[in-house]
Amino acid sequence: MQFTSEQHLDDDVIERAFSLGEIPGILWTPVAASASAPVPLILLGHPPLGLHKMYPRLVARARDAVADGFAAATIELPGSGDRPRSAAAEQARTALRRTVEAGEPVDAETVDALVLPLVDKAVPEWQAALDALLSLPGIGGPVGYSGGVISIGIRLAAVEPRISAAVLFAGSLVPAAMVEEARRITVPLHVLLQWDDEGNDRQAALDLFDAFGSKEKTLHANMGGHTGVPQFAGDAAAQFFIRHLK
């Protein structure tokens, strides 16, 4: 891991851009974090739209996490931002757009082609980033995962023992294989669902929640569309992490 820039966002937050090989990322830490007073870590997942485009939303989430006493970090997803594109992924995205524009249901083959290769590549990269982040002074466990492509969160929570709790954002483009992996998850989960999300199959999201193997799992459903998550829903997710990571 090499840090490429550093800035103080205010009196309490240090933001550092880094690169992990070809993977760009951003780390936010409380000024008070130190080797003698390490803080827990929250990994901030996001859609594959590029860190530059997602930055305003990511930095807002990071500020909230730091205010609660956590470090927060994110990385650029495969095929996103300035990272090399995959011809197969671009073909799957084109098929998805064509299907959605036609008002037709998205078939399982398209979902698998779009999501499974992304999960297979992204999860080991998140694990490599986690290795590097936990080696830094001022950052310790436990670790939480928040948001992002829900299938990435499913795989990471299922295979990475350092993930102690996860907040997942409901989405319906979930391959059947990922639903089966969801049954292996045992860590506490807090799932956010927008009841009227225009891009989400509500029943598919409910079926996925039912599949999660965790003994402690909470579904926080609110009326409204995809971008209408109320502030109190975010506050509830923050309290979930405070309860399980501190």
Give your account of this protein's structure.
A nine-stranded mixed sheet has the order 1-2-3-5-4-6-7-8-9, sandwiched between helices. By secondary structure, the chain is an alpha/beta fold. It has a single domain (2-85, 115-245), classed as Rossmann fold (3-Layer(aba) Sandwich). Helices cover 41% and strands 26% of the residues. Helix 2 crosses helix 3 and helix 3 (108-134) crosses helix 4.
Task: Give a brief rundown of this model.
With 246 residues, the chain is α/β, with parallel strands linked by helices.
Q: Tell how many strands the DSSP assignment holds.
A: 9
What's the story with the biggest beta sheet? 9 strands, mixed
State the CATH topology: Rossmann fold
Number of helical regions: 7
Distance between the termini: 26 Å
Helicity, as a percent range? 40-55%
Quick one: overall form? globular
Uncertain regions: pLDDT < 50 for 5+ in a row?
A: none
Mean pLDDT: 92
Q: Features of this protein?
A:
246 residues; alpha/beta; Rossmann fold; 9 strands; globular
Helices and strands in order, then pairings?
Elements: E1 2-8, E2 13-20, E3 23-30, E4 39-45, H1 51-67, E5 71-75, H2 87-101, H3 108-134, E6 139-147, H4 150-159, E7 163-169, H5 176-182, E8 189-194, H6 202-211, E9 217-222, H7 231-245
Parallel strand pairs: 4-5, 4-6, 6-7, 7-8, 8-9
Antiparallel strand pairs: 1-2, 2-3, 3-5
Helix pairs in contact: 2-3, 3-4
